[in-house]
Specification:
This protein has about 375 residues and is an alpha/beta fold. The protein has three domains: about 20-225, NADH-ubiquinone oxidoreductase 51kDa subunit (Rossmann fold); about 240-325, Ubiquitin-like (UB roll), CATH 3.10.20; about 325-360, no CATH class. It is built from 15 helices and eight strands. It has helices at about 20-25, 30-35, 40-50, 60-65, 90-95, 100-110, 125-145, 175-180, 210-220, 225, 260-265, 300-305, 325-340, 345-355, 360; strands at about 75-80, 115-120, 160-165, 205-210, 235-245, 250-255, 275-280, 315-320. A hairpin with a 6-residue loop joins β5 (about 235-245) and β6 (about 250-255). α5 crosses α7 (about 125-145) and α13 (about 325-340) crosses α14 (about 345-355). It is globular, with a radius of gyration of 21 Å. The structure holds flavin mononucleotide (FMN). Flavin mononucleotide binds near residues 53, 63, 80, 82 and 207.
Length: about 375
């Protein structure tokens, strides 16, 4: 099985530097992209079928196509590396272990939407990711794939790594934009969507880390290659993972369309001895519980929606038969009550009420 997202990742080994990454076939997509018309590149990514990995699964190229025609003013690409969703740790893996993959994806994506400035909005606690990204960005500038006139073209791009002061709502793309502007991180009303009016009122694309890490493979190897990676006609691979009382918690790259059962039993080694699966959250703390009867569903947004939940970040949290479900949910509610941005009444007032219901009265 091909693993374009994690092929350079080896447990215990430092991330590839610029030379090692390039020798392994890295940065090929940049020259290929620069030889294309930006609009053709957007259509190319749209036709690959890549869906966003930040939670909603919206077609990435289609989202890019909503940016208006360039008018000579600034345009921005923002990588959403906030990753504060409970139980989610996939972007961390990519940034800590293969930072050049993200930078390559950012150059190609920024060119497609004609952005000359790109930001990485990084969760503040991700200190190792910060260090490795800073090193990789400096190497990319030194090698001339970032900065003025990339590969001798007319295209120039700067990347700025911004570490978040730390709030869950900063992961929501419009709150993230406010935070980058130095404002309080409250979401903005949509429309206008960021593609039209984002950072400082200018066209802005916000994409998840894993989404952007898919771009180098798509551009280098083509649409047919990408479409053949998944199961049952699904395009690509994605990073899925498990936390909870399983034998081997972690996250792994697998074909899009893999079932929850394969993830849980083959990758995570099944439940620990003496524990049974009671329920699971399919993609982070904000998704709804699924039951053991849902294990044979493919991990696809549509299939999970039909079962009454959301695929979200595709890192499942397992609830076993010996853990109190009320205690587990109380723990999550406590997190969401604490992290409410306070803008809307049901969340601001409702979550603290739910948190303070006497547990003894409901157990
Ligand atoms: C409360 C909240 C938190 C979110 N947190 C994240 C996050 O940490 N990372 C992320 O990529 N998307 C997060 N999202 C989704 C983003 O708003 C946005 O849809 C996503 O970054 C788009 O990227 P994609 O199209 O590549 O999936 C969050 C959304 C909400 C409502």
């Amino acid at each position: 099985m091909q693993k374009p997202l994690t092929k350079n990742i080896e447990k215990g080994r430092a991330p590839f530097n610029f030379q090692q990454y390039s020798a392994a076939g890295g940065y090929l997509s940049v020259a290929k992209a620069l030889a294309m018309e930006p609009k053709a590149l957007v259509t190319f990514v749209k036709d690959s079928g890549l869906g966003g990995r930040g939670g909603a699964g919206f077609n990435t190229g289609l989202k890019w196509s909503f940016t208006p025609e360039p008018d000579g003013g600034p345009r921005y690409l923002v990588v959403n590396a906030d990753e504060m969703e409970p139980g989610t740790f996939k972007d961390r893996l990519l940034m800590e272990h293969d930072p050049h993959l993200l930078i390559e994806g950012m150059i190609t994506s920024a060119y497609a939407i004609q952005a000359s400035m790109a930001y990485i909005f990084l969760r503040g606690e991700y200190k190792l990711a910060e260090k490795n990204l800073q090193t990789a960005i400096a190497e990319a500038y030194a090698a001339g794939v970032l900065g003025k006139n990339i590969h001798g073209s007319n295209y120039s791009l700067d990347i700025c790594l911004h570490t978040s002061a730390g709030r869950y709502i900063c992961g929501e793309e419009t709150a993230l934009i406010n935070a980058l502007e130095g404002k309080r991180a409250n979401p903005r009303a949509k429309p206008p969507f960021p593609q039209v009016s984002g950072l400082w009122g200018r066209p802005t694309l916000v994409n998840n880390v894993e989404t952007i890490c898919n771009i180098p493979g798509i551009v280098t190897h083509g649409i047919e290659w990408y479409k053949a990676l998944g199961l049952n006609g699904q395009p690509g691979t994605r990073i899925c993972g498990v936390s909870g009382r399983v034998k081997n918690p972690g996250c792994w790259e697998m074909p899009v369309g893999t079932t929850f059962r394969t993830l849980l039993e083959d990758y995570a080694g099944g439940m620990q001895d003496g524990y049974q699966l009671k329920a699971f959250l399919p993609g982070g703390g904000s998704t709804d519980f699924l039951l053991p009867e849902h294990l044979d569903l493919p991990m696809l947004p549509g299939d999970v929606a039909k079962a009454g939940s959301r695929l979200g970040t595709s890192l499942i949290m397992v609830l076993d038969d010996k853990t109190c479900p009320v205690g587990c949910i109380h723990n999550l509610i406590k997190f969401f009550a604490h992290e409410s941005c306070g803008w809307c009444t049901p969340c601001r007032d409702g979550l603290p009420w739910a948190e303070h219901i006497d547990r003894k009265s409901v157990v």
